[in-house]
Design a protein that fits this description.
Largest sheet of chain A: 6 strands, mixed
Radius of gyration of chain A: 18 Å
Distance between the termini of chain A: 33 Å
Strand order of the largest sheet of chain A: 2-1-3-4-5-10
Order of helices and strands of chain A: EHEHEHHEHEHEHEHHEHEE
Oligomer: homodimer
Chain lengths: 277, 277
């Protein structure tokens, strides 16, 4: 094995949107500065492909995901970024993933939630919702990205969302959860705490997603909902009349789901890691 | 009965957004000019209330809907407009509707689709997707609104979507259908042709809605999908790479649902009536 024993190799794929090569280079620099030779980021070339909206066509994104997932030289899979497109590859890719893929950690959020859900449903044990390399665009000196790295490399407990308290939890972008309910990617939510965040959605849409999600029989069996941050909410005209926490409380009360307060997740630098369990 | 025998009374409620009084006045003028004393539009005062995003709070919108629905002096219920909010009142209102409500025709589209779905699921026989008075804002000399009226008053066959061919059909806004799947408002879609339209959604969202909708087991039992117009689609950056018909064909093929071509419905003046069956 030699020096490969010392290097923790993280494979990166982009199941949705294309990754800018400049951000990938920046991510490698951050990893090198933080971990030296101990950690290597291996961006699959697929990350930089372009096919309309996506980082390569469905087949290319599927193949890259399966290749990185099954590669025995790679210790963890990190989704480079979200965007949109994971729902187009998840059902094809997941059944092709073998034991090596099951032993790896899988980390990402936003659109990658389609894959996190499907992997968790398929019995993968090391799936987590948390920061991605693309978070470097937040110009936060790599705070979010380093948190993701710290969890992937060392399972650093400081990276974790503080309120998890050992309770089985799942975290999703609210929109993505809504869009995977009723599909083959929908995991069993019974008895699990659900942490939900969103970005760039009008309040009326947040309200509509909460109607949809809290009306679902599977969601109604969850142990409760915690609300992450809803950021970059466009101005509602007229004013919606409720903020996101009032909306979450309203729908939880109406559907009989315990509302368990706020969660420290969101499309921002403070986004913490939530391992699925 | 006297003169009331001659007058067809249409009750109007606004289960989502507020109706402008000026548009209501315009709608009355159009009805009077077209039908004289034969038709009367009765806007419930609830249409003009304002509570944040909505035309009155949930209780006010629910009560107005139930009142107009159960009123034996009223022959049909017309949703004055969409917006957002029908999903907040449907489950509370529908069980309160009695025999008089079941005998009436119910017409609307867009956000009102939540109610159309719930009413159809509850066994209402005269539910239809089609133009509303708010369509007067299209400045089409009332073409869309008059089509809705012609169906409500005379069941004018010229108001109907031309391709229905006697096949049991349902029509929805794609977003609204996505957001009611898995909720108590979801009707049985087995063997029915599904006509879908949308407005103001990015192509990547239309694609995501199609993933969600065509992955649903109930939708997969439908007789096929026909695509209405997707209008006011914001520019996708980068270009999505597929238009809405390619997207519809893609997901229909992938999910084994027959794609049955285009449908003459949409958020526009040409929007035709689709009775639910």
């Amino acid at each position: 094995m030699g020096s490969s024993e010392k290097t923790f190799r993280i494979g990166l794929v982009a199941p949705g949107g294309r990754m800018a090569e400049s951000v990938a280079a920046q991510a490698k620099a951050v990893a090198r500065k933080t971990y030296g030779d101990k950690v290597e980021l291996k961006f699959h070339p697929q990350c930089f492909l372009s096919s309309g909206h996506f980082a390569g066509d469905d087949r290319q994104r599927t193949q890259a995901l399966v290749e990185i997932g099954n590669d025995r030289e790679i210790d963890a899979v990190w989704f480079a970024r979200g965007g949109y497109g994971a729902c187009r590859v998840a059902e094809e890719a997941i059944p092709q993933l073998g034991d090596a893929a099951r032993r790896k950690a899988w980390l990402g959020y936003s659109d990658a939630g389609f894959l996190l859900a499907g992997l968790f449903k398929a019995g993968f044990k090391h799936v987590a919702h948390g920061p991605m390399p693309v978070d470097l665009v937040r110009e936060d000196e790599g705070a979010a990205m380093k948190r993701g790295l710290a969890w992937l490399v060392d399972r650093d407990p400081r990276a974790l969302e503080e309120g998890l308290g050992g309770k089985p939890s799942l975290a999703f972008n609210l929109t993505i959860l809504s869009q995977l309910l009723g599909t083959p990617l929908e995991p069993d939510l019974s008895g699990r705490v659900l942490l939900l965040e969103d970005v760039g959605e009008y309040m009326y849409r947040i309200d509509r997603y909460f109607f949809h999600v809290t009306s679902n029989p599977n969601v109604r069996r969850c142990a409760g909902i915690r609300l992450g941050r809803c950021s970059a909410v466009p101005k509602n005209d007229p004013d919606f009349g409720m903020d996101e926490e009032e909306v979450a409380r309203f729908w939880c009360e109406r559907s009989g789901i315990p509302y368990l307060g706020r969660a420290d997740i969101g499309h921002d630098s403070d986004n913490k890691v939530v391992p699925f369990g």
